[in-house]
Amino acid sequence: MRQRAPAISRDRGHPDAARTCGRLKASLIPAFAAIALGGCGSTTSAPLAASVQGSPIGQSQLAHWVAVKRAEQAGSSNPESSSSAQLTQNALRFLITAQWLEKEAAAQGVSVAPSEVQDTYQRLLTGPSGQAFAASLKRRGLSSADELLVLRLGALAQKLRAKIASAHPGLSAAQIRGLLGAFIVAYRERWRQRTTCQPHYLIAECRNGPPLPSPGGAP
Q1: Per-residue pLDDT tens digits for 105-157
Q2: Residue ranges per domain, the chain?
């Protein structure tokens, strides 16, 4: 599975993390992982790349996801390639927005049971494409903990989006998209203000980095 910045409209059961981490394109946005990311190598004593409201993102953790993205790029049919700096930025954006999602979901009372995520993972492994799925994880250096994280984020995003929409019954699909868009603009800026990056790791998601791009139609 490919990893993108988490989005609140992901399909949690799809075996491609680029889509697990966007079928509902109209509401695809950088989304809201201290608990889940703890399994990805972060430590309080390791050199930091960034922190979100006190939760660290370690340089070793970042390096792992950079390697994942480099392997994804090597196996992609897309002729365009990203520089090492771009891969680092993309990996850090994924880790930061994963923390945002975890923390926002907790604040909103949205949760996903570990058994739910594990069940999805097992279905992917034992389904018709299970062998290809397992081979893809191995090729890109993804552990089971990494994939469980991606699946967890997808499930949290889907539940959070559903909660926001259910609070406004009777709205049309277009109105729901507008509602979600407005929520996301405020959400991104709110969590950006709680995110600090080290000087060599500044991206738009950091309060001490460049401005966030305009969300436009489908951020």
Answers
A1: 999 999 999 999 999 999 999 999 999 999 999 999 999 999 999 999 999 99
A2: 17-201
Confidence bin at 74 (pLDDT 50/70/90):
confident
SS (H, E, C) 32-91: CCHHHHHHHCCCCCCCEEEEECCEEEEHHHHHHHHHHHHHHHHCCCCCCCCCHHHHHHHH
> What's the token pair of residue 193?
């203000």
Rounded-to-integer distance, Cα 11 and Cα 24, Å: 8
Gap between the Cα atoms of 95 and 92, Å rounded: 5
CB-side neighbour CA atoms (13 Å) of 104: 31
Statement: the pTM of the whole predicted model exceeds 0.85: no
Q: 3-class SS at 164?
A: helix
Q: Which of 91, 88, 95, 90 is nearest to 33 (CA)?
A: 95
Q: Is the Cβ–Cβ distance between 108 and 130 less than 8 Å?
A: no
What's at 157, amino acid-wise? A
In this structure, what token pair is assigned to residue 10? 């992901």
Q: At what angle do helices 84-107 and 173-192 cross, to 10 degrees?
A: 110
CB 8 within 8 A of CB 24: no
Q: Please state, as a whole number, how many other Cβ atoms lie within 10 Å of the Cβ of residue 188.
A: 22
Query: What type of residue is 18?
Result: A
